[in-house]
């Protein structure tokens, strides 16, 4: 991989990781509701789960979608339905220690990693990274490099959203304010489905 291509890919990875999307909306809400430390497994699950997804796409799953485009459509709408379910859970969440606190714990590492496989935007980004930035020469090595770099760029990028949420925590001690925040995050999560359904290249 040339230096120019490497720089272009790192920029691509940063922009798609730092801008709003389902993962970042969920991490912002997690930072507010559970704090930075308890949200660390969620952050790591996103980065490493997405890395595995990029590897899988690069090593063969991308060709499966080319041969069976309807399969991608099924995945896209199944993922959208799951995102709507998560938005509902976020909207219903109260303070973590309240009797009606909804989701009483943040995503685990495995839950966050598994979520990448039903996140349509993650699939679009993984396919884009492999098809656009991975040279055919020494293809397998370049796939490994692309996946590792994406994880390295992604983790601190999504971490900023979690940190922002944790910093807002003290401002959201009022249960009513927290409920309004969670409803707002749920609506933003639903709004993030718009580019998915239009097949645009959204963010992670």
From TrEMBL:
The keyword Hydrolase does not apply. It is found in: Cell membrane. Keywords: Cell membrane, Membrane, Transmembrane, Transmembrane helix. The keyword Transmembrane helix applies. It is a multi-pass membrane protein. The chain crosses the membrane at residues 44-62, 74-91, 143-168, 180-198. It comes from the Bacteria. InterPro entries: LeuE-type (IPR001123). It holds the Pfam family LysE. PANTHER family: ARGININE EXPORTER PROTEIN ARGO, ARGININE EXPORTER PROTEIN ARGO-RELATED. This is LysE family translocator. It comes from Pseudomonas benzenivorans.
């Amino acid at each position: 991989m040339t230096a120019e291509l490497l720089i272009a890919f790192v920029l691509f990875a940063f922009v798609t990781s730092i801008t709003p999307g389902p993962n970042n909306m969920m991490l912002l809400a997690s930072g507010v509701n559970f704090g930075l430390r308890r949200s660390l497994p969620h952050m790591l699950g996103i980065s490493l789960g997405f890395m595995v997804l990029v590897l899988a796409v690069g090593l063969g799953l991308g060709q499966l979608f080319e041969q069976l485009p309807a399969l991608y459509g099924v995945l896209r709408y199944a993922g959208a339905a799951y995102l709507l379910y998560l938005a509902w859970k976020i909207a219903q969440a109260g303070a973590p220690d309240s009797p009606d606190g909804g989701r009483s714990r943040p995503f685990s590492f495995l839950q966050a990693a598994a979520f990448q496989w039903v996140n349509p935007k993650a699939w679009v980004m993984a396919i884009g990274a492999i098809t656009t930035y991975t040279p055919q020469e020494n293809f397998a090595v370049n796939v490994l490099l692309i996946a590792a770099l994406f994880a390295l760029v992604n983790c601190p990028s999504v971490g900023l959203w979690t940190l922002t949420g944790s910093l807002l925590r003290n401002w959201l001690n009022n249960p009513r304010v927290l409920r309004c925040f969670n409803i707002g995050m749920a609506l933003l999560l639903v709004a993030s489905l718009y580019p998915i359904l239009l097949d645009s290249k959204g963010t992670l």
